[in-house]
């Protein structure tokens, strides 16, 4: 048995219940890990609320780091005592958990556990956005919404390191300096400025090459209006609600635009792709190109408070639960 945050019925943060949970011994192809830090992400709130369907009951969360304490049959290359991390594997909000060995990522020395827990899902999201969805080239210009958020702080730093011009949006004055310190060359406060007008001004009327939009419904059309002709709209999240496009012709009218809705599952279909992305992320962090900001920590049993803060957009950087 272990202690975990369990969702029996989907709903608000109150649906996260701290209780005893049976872990069991690892089966073939599995390892059991004792977790040292657990990441909190927006997708966790979508699963808890029922926006993304998950069969109940389930242990919330999908990202963490810890030490291997048991290994099942048929597992090669992972031993008891190894430090491993993972992302996008449901069941993270627990002191101990079972994990498919193929999803266990060896963690190099020199990285703090809180850093690692905060960067796997967000960092690998930034990786596929910048290297796979649109292989970002030096000299290109991007618009990144929620630049002071967990993915935003990583992606904007990495984009700058690649030589891109980064324009970010934030929702408060105090987040402007944070975004400027983490890769953005210019920052727009969307509560006080007209985002489209400001982007057009900054780009001499041309628009940006790519918009990265994890906000969703509230920013979708604004994002389209910020693109150059044949630019790419990357809609990768639903923080403000799900995007609906009843009229596909809007893409034609706004400049023969491209639109994609990427997910990590499509970009990391196997262990080879997963380790390729993780190693690129680890190198970026170890080199100093990307700094990981863990700005909020909560006890595991206080996961509901973490969700409330995240959904209220009261946080910057990453949130980590400590088992």
UniProtKB/TrEMBL annotation:
Domain of life: Bacteria
Listed SMART domains: PKS_ER
Classification via InterPro entries: ADH-like_C, ADH-like_N, ER, GroES-like_sf, NAD(P)-bd_dom_sf, QOR-like, Quin_OxRdtase/zeta-crystal_CS
SUPFAM superfamilies named in the record: GroES-like, NAD(P)-binding Rossmann-fold domains
Keywords: NADP, Oxidoreductase
Keyword S-adenosyl-L-methionine in record: no
Domain spans labelled Enoyl reductase (ER): 11-321
A molecular function GO annotation: zinc ion binding
One Gene Ontology CC term in the entry: cytosol
NCBIfam families (UniProt xref): PRK10754.1 (NF008024)
PANTHER family from the UniProt entry: QUINONE OXIDOREDUCTASE PIG3-RELATED, QUINONE OXIDOREDUCTASE-RELATED
Protein name according to UniProt: Quinone oxidoreductase
Species whose genome carries this gene: Devosia geojensis
């Amino acid at each position: 048995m272990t202690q975990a945050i369990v969702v029996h019925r989907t709903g608000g943060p109150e649906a996260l219940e701290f209780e005893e949970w049976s872990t069991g011994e690892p089966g073939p192809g599995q390892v059991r890990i004792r977790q040292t830090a657990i990441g909190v992400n927006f997708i966790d709130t979508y699963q808890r609320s029922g926006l993304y369907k998950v069969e109940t009951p389930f242990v919330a969360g999908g990202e963490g780091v810890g030490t291997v304490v048991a290994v099942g049959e048929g597992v090669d290359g992972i031993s008891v005592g190894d430090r491993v991390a993972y992302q996008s594997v449901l069941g993270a909000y627990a002191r101990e958990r079972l994990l498919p060995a193929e999803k266990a990522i060896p963690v190099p020395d020199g990285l703090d556990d809180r850093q690692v827990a905060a960067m796997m899902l967000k960092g690998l999201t930034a990786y596929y956005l910048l290297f796979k969805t649109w292989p970002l080239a030096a000299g290109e210009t991007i618009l990144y919404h929620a630049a002071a958020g967990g993915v935003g702080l990583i992606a904007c730093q990495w984009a700058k390191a690649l030589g891109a011009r980064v324009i970010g949006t934030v929702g408060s004055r105090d987040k402007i300096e944070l975004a400027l310190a983490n890769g953005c060359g210019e920052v727009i406060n969307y509560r006080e400025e007209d985002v489209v007008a400001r982007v057009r001004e900054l780009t001499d009327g041309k628009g940006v090459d790519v918009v990265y939009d994890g906000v969703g419904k509230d920013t979708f059309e604004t994002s389209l209006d910020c693109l150059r002709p044949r630019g790419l709209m990357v809609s990768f999240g639903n923080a403000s609600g799900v995007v609906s496009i009843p009229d596909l012709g809007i893409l034609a009218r706004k400049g023969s635009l491209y639109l994609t809705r990427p997910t990590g599952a499509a970009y990391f279909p196997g262990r080879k792709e997963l380790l390729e992305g993780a190693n690129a992320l680890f190198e970026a962090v170890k080199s100093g190109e990307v700094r990981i900001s863990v700005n909020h920590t909560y006890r595991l049993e206080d996961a509901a408070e973490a969700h409330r803060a995240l959904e209220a957009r009261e946080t910057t950087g990453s949130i980590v639960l400590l088992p």
